[in-house]
Amino acid sequence: MVRILAFYRSIKSKIAFYPTLFALSGLLFALLMMYLEKRGMSDYLVEHAPLFVVNSGDTALTILSACITGLISMMVFSFSMVMVLLNQAASDYSPRLLPGLISDYRHQIILGIYISSILYCIFVLFSIQPTGDKYQIPGFSVLLGILATVISIYAFIYFIHNISETIQITNIMEKIFNNASTRLNILLERETSMNWNFPDSHGWTAYSSDKSGYFQDFSGRDLLAFSKKNNTFLEVLPIKGTFVLKGTPVFRSKEKLSEEAVKELLENFHLSRKELVTSNYVLAFKQITEVVVKAMSPGINDPGTALNAIDYLSELIRLRMLKSDESFVSDSGQDYVKMRAVSFEELLYQINAALRKYCCGDIVVVQKLGYMYLALLKQKVLRPSYHDVLEKEAKRLLTDAKVAMTNEADLETLNLLAKKLPLQF
After folding, report:
1. Which residues cross the membrane (predicted)?
2. Could you tell me which residues come within 8 angstroms of residue 396 by beta carbon, excluding any fewer than 6 positions away?
């Protein structure tokens, strides 16, 4: 099951996914209309509703040719706009944002409307056959081709509107935040059913991966069924999003397993060559942090974007403070599978290390980060140690900022900020 879901996620993220589906639907609809035309549909409409039928063969050929030409031009322009969008996002923000932009279903659907309309018009054009001095005209099909072109024009107008909004960094970060917060809320709901009675895994037998890739996900239901079937407990060793080399241990079992059982279990682990926010919320922290770093680089120099990104980052950190560093798969009051996650301390250190490197010279951004830590220290946490981690990282930030700044007014601002946290540095 996990492989089917992984395959679906993989093809859905491709820019050609929806266009391919729409192209097939346009082709099938054209064949259906050709069949209905042979059954005398246009002749029936000529007698009862002549307004909906194109009678002139030359007119039909001219209209369909113009529609096909215009649709191809719009499609080429739209593809060019998508490429410009991806290039700008990679150069101005972060290359990690590209998978999320490519998988935007709205762009794919609009491109699919173009392609399906083009294929439909082409096949209808082929069905216009000369019979003596006249043409055998699929009149109603021609009218539908005109309507498909009109729909494509409106889709093109919506595409221009949507592409102008998608390129805005605020909307990009909003999408990243929504995906990550959705994933975190799902994990938080699962933690409410945990019993925290997993046995000590020291000394268990470890089993290695038979291939390399980013550890994306696994089927918790299948692992639970496997544990109960083999009367054992399992511990998943790699953290989601980490790169697993072939031969690296990926799980431990309380009971020794046969080669067939190990092979069966490894099939439930999804290793991929790319990372997705929908399956690994930690990637969202990386992406938003990279947006802040890129915005503070001398080539971009956009502190306003950095300040907005810090707001999204602070909300994600607040959600993460409600989650444990470990999670389990349980059934009937017993935890059978243990999973690891990036610890809160390690996650916050990785975020703060990048921000300290590139933001300590800007008092406005440092002040924003300081107030972020101040607000987070007042939030509810799962473990009291999370507050200690926040204070530690806040102190490191202000210490590095004090070294980087020489202006007396900036230093006084840092001192006031340290008193509010409160910190001694």
Report:
1. 15-36, 60-86, 107-128, 140-160
2. 352, 356
The pLDDT, as a whole number, for residue 351 is 92
Interval 189-229: pLDDT, tens: 877 766 677 888 888 888 888 888 888 777 777 788 888 88
| Domain total of the chain | 3
Residues 247 and 393 reside in one and the same domain: no
How many Cβ atoms are within 10 Å of 333's Cβ, its own excluded?
A: 8
From the CA atom positions of the chain, what is the Rg in Å?
Answer: 29
Helix H segments across 330-362? 344-359
Backbone phi, psi, residue 131, to 5°: -130, 90
Same domain, 352 and 416: yes
Query: Does residue 252 sit in the same domain as residue 392?
Result: no
User: Which residues on adjacent β-strands are paired with residue 27?
Assistant: none
Q: How far is CA 55 from the centre of its chain?
A: 49
Q: How much is the pLDDT for 268?
A: 77
295: its two tokens: 């915005």
Collapsing DSSP to helix, strand or coil, 68 comes out as: helix
pLDDT, mean of residues 44-72? 76
One DSSP character per residue, 84-130 reads HHHHHHHHHT-GGGHHHHHT-HHHHHHHHHHHHHHHHHHHHHHT-EE
Angle between helices 105-126 and 57-92 (to 10 degrees): 160
Residues 373 and 226 in one domain: no
Estimate the crossing angle of helix 303-320 against helix 282-295, to 10 degrees: 160
Could you tell me which residues come within 8 angstroms of residue 26 by beta carbon, excluding any fewer than 6 positions away?
Answer: 115, 116, 117, 118, 119, 120
Helix (H, G, I), strand (E, B) or coil at 215: strand
Domain range spanning residue 134?
Answer: 2-167
